[in-house]
């Protein structure tokens, strides 16, 4: 028996305090459906390339990210659940006899929504409040995957003469999901959408 994500979304809206045991049974039904699982797309997040450039004392990020949502994530999105996609960037100071130390970090968040009335996909830059609208999901994900001149850090905040590594990854955050749906993501591996760290030396 397969319990659709849309059904749980509706449950979240109608009864936020639904008994946990019911939600666990729903999750078990999802896990116990191998035939359905074979049909589903597990999704994929990947950093294909990344670089930084220094302009007037500020480091800016340029990156190409590949986003393919899992079947469950797409179903939740089209059922009205906003998806939060995060980009994490860290500057690591290289240390000869110890682990590299994180000197600075940036978290850039985007909210992806589907507006059923207009049949448009909306991308909101949560850090600055800018919003863009797209006719289809492919265009929205393609926009998210092209990072151009994202400001990262002032050069003066990095110690002169030190060697730094930069690393970048992107992931689907489930922290803001309604309780029942957040519980579901614990049982479903296809909700664990996160790229590997992509790392390169500052200056390359």
Structure description:
By secondary structure, the protein is α+β, with helices and mostly antiparallel strands. The chain has helices at residues 5-14, 20-31, 34-39, 71-78, 137-144, 179-187, and strands at 44-55, 58-68, 83-93, 101-115, 120-125, 131-134, 146-154, 164-173, 198-201. The strands form two sheets. It has a six-stranded antiparallel β-sheet. It is elongated. Residues 19-25 have low confidence and may be disordered.
Largest sheet: 6 strands, antiparallel
Question: How many separate structural domains?
Answer: 1
The residue ranges in which pLDDT falls below 50 over 5 or more consecutive positions are 19-25
Number of strands: 9
Note the total helix count.
6
Mean pLDDT metric? 80
Shape type = elongated
Structural class: alpha+beta
Distance between the termini: 52 Å
How much is the radius of gyration in Å? 20 Å
Percentage of residues assigned to helices: 25-40%
Order of helices and strands: HHHEEHEEEEHEEHE
Please indicate the percent range of residues in DSSP E strands (runs of 2 or more). 35-45%
Strand order of the largest sheet: 6-5-4-3-8-9
